[in-house]
C-alpha cells in the first residue's frame, strides 16, 4: 500500500550574542508541498454479526488498491457494526472527512441507510449487496443479482433451442426478483410467457413439487414442446434436493425437463446426491478470472478469499479507476458504460444503478467439479 510522507522544514532564526552577529544557517532545498490525497471510504462490518467478513473485505479492497490504484488517493476504513444505523453514521463520518466515494456497505438494509446520507452529499455508493432493489442513480449494487443470474441462464438455454421456461421459488424477495427477471427475459427474447409458481416459504418443497409437477414438467408421453422445457429453482441445499425428488416422485420426466438454479449451487456438493440434478445448470463467474483472483489473494494474505471478497475487490477497483480519471479537485468520474475487469471477470456499470456482469454457465456433475457449458459473456444493452 502506498504511503505518503509529510516533510516538515524548520528555519533557524538569526541569533545575536555578546561578541557579534552570527548569520543564519543555510536552509536545505525547499520541497513542494505534497498534494492532498483524495479519500475513498470503506464501509465494512468490522464488528457485529458479520464481523468475520470485515477483514476479508478489507483485504480484497487493499489488493485492488495495490493493483489498480495510484498515489493520489487513500482508503478510509469505517466500521458499520453490521447495522443500518451504524452504516449511516459511518457514511456521514467519512463524508465529513472528505470521502469522495463510498465502497460498501455489505447488506441491503445498510445500503438503504447509506444511500440516503450519500445522496444529499452527491457521493457515489458501490455496495456489496445483491439486492437489485437498492439500485438507484449513483448507487450500484455489485453483488450477483437474481436478475443477472436468471438472464444469463435463459440466454444460454435459448441458444441451445430452449423456448419454454418455468420458475418455482418461495414467495419472498428472491423469488419475486427471479420471477420479474424471467418474465422480462422471455419478453425481450420473444419467448412464450413463462410458468411461474411462487409458494409459501414455509411450505415443504417436496409437497409443492408434487402438486406442480403436472403443470411444470412434461410426462414421457407428452407431445414434444408442449410443456416447460427448463425449470429454474429458487431453492438451495436440502430444499432443492427435496423439490426435485418431489418432481420425479410425481412422475415428471427429468430429463427431458431440464433444471437450473442459482450461483450458490457452486458451493453445495450435496446437490449431486439427487440423481435428477446431474447436469442441472447454474450461472457463475468467469472461471479463469476467478481462479486468478483467488491465487493473488492467497499469495498476499495466506488464505483463500471469502465468497464476497471478489465483490469488495470490484468495488475498490471501480473507485480507484474513478478517482484516477477524475480531474484534480473535480467529481469522481465513474466508468459508466465502460467494461471493467474485476475479480470475477468483466462488468459494466449502467445508468440508474444497474450492473451487468460476464457470467459463465456450469452443469452439475456427480463426483466431479461443475463443468462450464457456456463461456462467460458480458451482456449487451438489453441484458444479452
Description:
The protein is an alpha/beta fold. It folds into two domains: 38-143 and 308-353, Rossmann fold, CATH 3.40.50; 146-284 and 371-377, Rossmann fold, CATH 3.40.50.2300. It is built from nine helices and 16 strands. The chain has helices at residues 54-68, 84-96, 108-121, 146-159, 173-189, 205-216, 237-249, 287-301, 309-324; strands at residues 15-17, 20-22, 38-44, 73-79, 99-103, 125-126, 165-170, 195-199, 230-233, 258-260, 281-285, 339-342, 345-349, 355-357, 359-365, 368-377. The strands form five sheets. It has a four-stranded parallel sheet, sandwiched between helices. Helix 1 (54-68) packs parallel to helix 9 (309-324) and helix 4 (146-159) runs parallel beside helix 5 (173-189). The longest helix has 17 residues, at 173-189. It is elongated and about 90 Å long. The two termini are 38 Å apart. Residues 1-21 have low confidence and may be disordered. Keywords: Amino-acid transport, Signal, Transport. One of its GO terms (biological process) is amino acid transport. Residues 39-327 form the Leucine-binding protein domain. This is Penicillin-binding protein activator.
Question: Tags for this entry?
Answer:
disordered N terminus, about 375 residues, 2 domains, Penicillin-binding protein activator, 9 helices, 4-stranded parallel sheet, Rossmann fold, alpha/beta
Amino acid at each position: 500500500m502506498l504511503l505518503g510522507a509529510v516533510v516538515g522544514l524548520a528555519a533557524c532564526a538569526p541569533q545575536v550574542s555578546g561578541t557579534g552577529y552570527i548569520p543564519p544557517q543555510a536552509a536545505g532545498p525547499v520541497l513542494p508541498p505534497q498534494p492532498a490525497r483524495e479519500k475513498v471510504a470503506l464501509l465494512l462490518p468490522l464488528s457485529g454479526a458479520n464481523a468475520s467478513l470485515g477483514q476479508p473485505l478489507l483485504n480484497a479492497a487493499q489488493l485492488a488498491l495495490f493493483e489498480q490504484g495510484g498515489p493520489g488517493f487513500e482508503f478510509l476504513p469505517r466500521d458499520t457494526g453490521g447495522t443500518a444505523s451504524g452504516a449511516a453514521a459511518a457514511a456521514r463520518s467519512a463524508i465529513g472527512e472528505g470521502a469522495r466515494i463510498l465502497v460498501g456497505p455489505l447488506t441491503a438494509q445498510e445500503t438503504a441507510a447509506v444511500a440516503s446520507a450519500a445522496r444529499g452529499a452527491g457521493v457515489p455508493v458501490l455496495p456489496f449487496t445483491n439486492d437489485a432493489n437498492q439500485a438507484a442513480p449513483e448507487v450500484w449494487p455489485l453483488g450477483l443479482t437474481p436478475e443477472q443470474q436468471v438472464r444469463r441462464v435463459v440466454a444460454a438455454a435459448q441458444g441451445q433451442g430452449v423456448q419454454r421456461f418455468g420458475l418455482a421459488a418461495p414467495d419472498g424477495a428472491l423469488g419475486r426478483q427471479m420471477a420479474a427477471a424471467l418474465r422480462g427475459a422471455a419478453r425481450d427474447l420473444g419467448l412464450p410467457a413463462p410458468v411461474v409458481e411462487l409458494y409459501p416459504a414455509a411450505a415443504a418443497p417436496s409437497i409443492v413439487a408434487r402438486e406442480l409437477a403436472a403443470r411444470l414438467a412434461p410426462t414421457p408421453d407428452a407431445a414434444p414442446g408442449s410443456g416447460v422445457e427448463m425449470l429454474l429453482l429458487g431453492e438451495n441445499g436440502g430444499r432443492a434436493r427435496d423439490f426435485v425428488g418431489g418432481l420425479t416422485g410425481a412422475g415428471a420426466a427429468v430429463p427431458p425437463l431440464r433444471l437450473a438454479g442459482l450461483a450458490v449451487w457452486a458451493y453445495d456438493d450435496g446437490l449431486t446426491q439427487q440423481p435428477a440434478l446431474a447436469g442441472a445448470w447454474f450461472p457463475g463467474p468467469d472461471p479463469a478470472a476467478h481462479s486468478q483472483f483467488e491465487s493473488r489473494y492467497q499469495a498476499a494474505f495466506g488464505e483463500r478469499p471469502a465468497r464476497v471478497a471478489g465483490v469488495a475487490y470490484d468495488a475498490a477497483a471501480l473507485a480507484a479507476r474513478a478517482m484516477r480519471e477524475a480531474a484534480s479537485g473535480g467529481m469522481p468520474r465513474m466508468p459508466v458504460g465502460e467494461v471493467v475487469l474485476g475479480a470475477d471477470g468483466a462488468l459494466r456499470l449502467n445508468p440508474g444503478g444497474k450492473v451487468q456482469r460476464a457470467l459463465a454457465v456450469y452443469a452439475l456433475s456427480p463426483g466431479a467439479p461443475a463443468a462450464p457449458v457456456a463461456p462467460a459473456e458480458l451482456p449487451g444493452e438489453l441484458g444479452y
